[in-house]
Amino acid sequence: MIRQCLHRLLLPLILCLLAVNPALASDEQQQQEAALMAQQQKVLAGEQQQLSQLQAQPQASDADLWRAVRAGDAGYTVAPGAESGRLINAVGQEGRLIRDQYVIPTLGAMLVGVFALFLLFYLINGPARLTKGFSGKMVRRWSSADMLLHWLMAISCLLLMITGLIIAWGRHALEGWMSADVWAGLIYGSKTLHDWTGPVFIVSWALCILKWMPLQMFKRYDFNWFMTAGGYVHFGPFKGKHPESGFANAGEKLWFWTLALFGLFISVTGVMLVLPDLVITRENSFVALIIHGFSAAILIGFTIVHIWMATALSEGGLESMVSGYCDENWAIQHHNIWYDEIKADGSLEYKT
Amino acid sequence: MAVMKFLCDTKRCIECNGCVTACSNSNSEALTFGTMRRRVVTLHDGEPGEASISVACMHCSDAPCKAVCPANCFYTTDDGIVLHNKETCIGCGYCFYACPFGAPQFPKKTAFGSRGKMDKCTYCAGGPVPDFSEEEQRLYGANRIAEGKLPLCAEMCSTKALLAGDAEVISSIYRARVAARSNPDTIWGYVPETGN
Ligand code: HEM
Ligand code: SF4
Ligand code: SF4
Fold it and tell me: What Gene3D superfamilies has UniProt attached to this entry (chain B) (predicted)?
């Protein structure tokens, strides 16, 4: 820029000299001056061109260069690593804010909120008793393969939930209660257990979903189950209702499909997180982390409901996943269509 | 209390990678093969407007890595240096996802489970173990700050493009340079309207 100014000053100066001293300007001199002037003009034109080039080629301008870097532009580097040429990538920082502000609170709210709501409901409502009591006659409901798969999935899933919650909530809720060494051991143990339990869950989950899918298709009568809240509510307009249901009731079907969908999300994103070389970019990793967290929140909420239902709310329900048999009266009251079906086609099998 | 920062003058950086070598040398005990705490990136290499810049950890005042870490193993020293505890680190990689500058590194690139303990620039300030201990050398590398010296990368920069020190001090050095060059073009993000 300075040079450009100088050239511009020089030009009028030469012109002035020419005007003031015309006598001195011999032919030879005039030629020289003209040549000099032409040269000056060439330089000026060159600089003008440079300037317009700068405007036309934004990468040559500092402002745009750093603006592009801020937006994620990459350069050349000898450093190893997939993204080492990239100077700034703020996506992870934005993802972190989503995780801290939404995912982690949602996880906590699901755990505490759903549990509290169900406890309240249980205390007001009480469990669903068998209206005719136990018959003592046990009907085959699950095979031993079903039970093995169920408990593999359930135990791995619960371990994943506990360790996952420690990873998400530990530093906020637990770290302050223990010494630094205990904390280090706890968080390291949780992370390691979470990594190694994941594959067990994925395999057992996939087998359960495939094996049980035929039993979980929604039927017309399932609509009525939802309208009467499954017959579990013992007050108000829902009192005394016994909606129809097949092998699985509508609530169980909803749980099944939620588990199928979010189990898929959590499995895929879990694999992405545990094998970082599959998803080289930081964007993908953080998207995976957020989907993983939200899916976990939903599964945690549903699991709490599921465990409440199985252990406390439905009298005689847990039995069927422990021994594989359910009480005949339980089958008639809670799964009448299924009971009628197996009775009709002769597949009903009593415990001997 | 100071706020220690790095500043790289891109009009001076000549992409010699001397800072990278100095860093590896200074912290050799703590570094595994393939980890680099500092790197030099050249933008528009060989084109008009080429610029080189040396980057490591920026020692952010409100550090994303520190906020995201599930093990809560980061801490900020009185000098504003962001350090972490390798004993507590679980190698989850969250800090690497969150850091805008790609500073955190991991010894294991292909990992099921843990990627190993995270490593990043310590501003040559060691870690949460006794100063100059064998353990500090092995886990974190040099502790030049405790010796009253600046990080080796900046000390050894041949063109003094890479500056390290209190934010106030190094930014006034840079400001003086820009003034001396009397070229407004050297201020990032500012291209003046060129009048006649
Ligand atoms: C200790 C906790 C748990 C208990 C006590 C429990 C109990 C039960 C019981 C009793 C059944 C049989 C329901 C019936 O006979 O109709 C069942 C089914 C099932 N459980 Fe669990 N369970 C637990 C945890 C889990 C977990 C963690 C998962 C998933 C990750 C899970 C997924 C399932 C699924 C998908 C079914 C099939 C339900 C259906 O028919 O739709 N369970 N569970
Ligand atoms: S590692 Fe990244 S986020 Fe953390 S202080 Fe350094 S530059 Fe900032
Ligand atoms: S890799 Fe280590 S330092 Fe980084 S977030 Fe995970 S536990 Fe924290």
Answer: 3.30.70.20
Token code pair at residue A346: 């002769």
**Segments making up each domain of chain B, as ranges:** 4-182
Residues B83-115 have pLDDT tens digits of 999 999 999 999 999 999 999 999 877 677 778
Question: Can you give the pLDDT at residue B196?
Answer: 44
Q: Where are the domains of chain A?
A: 108-345
Interface predicted TM-score of the whole assembly (ipTM), two decimals: 0.86
| Pairwise pLDDT comparison (A6 vs A67), residue with the higher score | A67
DSSP symbol at A112: I
Options 3.40.190.290, 3.40.50.280, 1.20.950.20, 1.20.1250.20; CATH of A108-345: 1.20.950.20
Handedness of CA A19, A24, A28, A33 (dihedral sign): negative
Question: From the CA of B36, how many Å to the nearest CA of chain A?
Answer: 7
Q: Whose CA is nearest to atom 2 of ligand 3?
A: B89
CATH of domain B4-182: 3.30.70.20
On the CB side of B109, CA atoms within 13 Å amount to 10
Q: Is A168 on the interface with B (CB under 8 A)?
A: yes
Rounded (10°) angle between helices A180-212 and A144-173: 150
**List of chain B residues whose C-beta atoms are within 8 Å of the C-beta of residue A85:** 41
CB contact under 8 A, B72 and A184: no
Among A274, A87, A67, A245, residue whose Cα is nearest residue A167? A274
Q: Among B65, B90, B109, which is best to mutate for testing ligand 3, by the most ligand atoms less than 8 A from CB?
A: B90
Cβ of residue B181 closer than 8 Å to a chain A Cβ = no
Q: Which of A200, A213, A192, A190 is nearest to A153 (CA)?
A: A200
pLDDT tens-digit series, residues A222-250: 776 776 776 677 666 666 667 778 788 87
Does the structure show a pLDDT above 60 at A261?
yes
pLDDT confidence tier of residue A258, bands split at 50, 70 and 90:
very high
Question: Of A8, A63, A90, which is closest to B100 when you measure between CB atoms?
Answer: A90
Which tens digits make up the pLDDT trace of A29-65? Answer: 889 888 888 888 887 776 676 666 556 554 456 778 8
